[in-house]
Amino acid sequence: QVQLVESGGGLVQAGDSLRLSCAASGRTISSYAVGWFRQAPGKEREFVAANSWDGSTTNSEFVKGRFTISRDNAKNTVFLQMNSLKPEDTAVYYCAASRLLRSVVQQKPDHWGQGTQVTVSS
């Protein structure tokens, strides 16, 4: 079983940057695909970005050029660097992990974190 704990969220202004972290425990995530999702108030959860065990990444269109997913397998941690934040990026951000990349991209991962709130003021 993989446990995921997100951190790094907070209140920032439009144009600022934040780096979210997702610390994994229970198992090493080096052989897992990992991803980030977000859910804004009143909206459905949406895919943000995913990183496969081989290092390849998949990003949603709305974050390309602004957000970057990465991982540090030695620290068993996944990151989401978010730059040029916009008010519409306000949401709870969730980390997820699964053996298969397609499970992450299709929003059906095996493991979910509890989420961290990101609020971007205008």
Describe the protein:
By secondary structure, the chain is mostly beta strands. Helix content is 4%, strand content 50%. It has one helix and eleven strands; from the N terminus they run βββββββββαββ. The strands form two sheets. Strands 2, 4, 5, 6, 9, 10 and 11 form a seven-stranded mixed β-sheet that branches. A hairpin with a 5-residue loop joins β5 and β6 (57-59). It is globular.
Order of helices and strands: EEEEEEEEEHEE
Gross morphology is globular
Show unreliable segments: none
Number of strands: 11
Major sheet: 7 strands, mixed
- The helix-and-strand class reads mainly beta
N- to C-terminal distance: 40 Å
Radius of gyration: 13 Å
Mean pLDDT: 95
Number of helices: 1
Helix content: under 10%
What is the strand content? Answer: over 45%
Give the helices and strands, then pairings.
Layout: E1 3-7, E2 10-13, E3 18-25, E4 33-39, E5 46-51, E6 57-59, E7 67-72, E8 77-82, E9 91-98, H1 101-105, E10 111-112, E11 116-121
Parallel strand pairs: 2-11
Antiparallel strand pairs: 1-3, 3-8, 4-5, 4-9, 5-6, 7-8, 9-10, 9-11
Describe the structure using short key phrases.
122 residues; globular; 50% strand; four-stranded antiparallel sheet; 11 strands; single chain; mainly beta; seven-stranded mixed sheet; 4% helix
Summarize the structure in short.
With 122 residues, this protein is mainly beta.
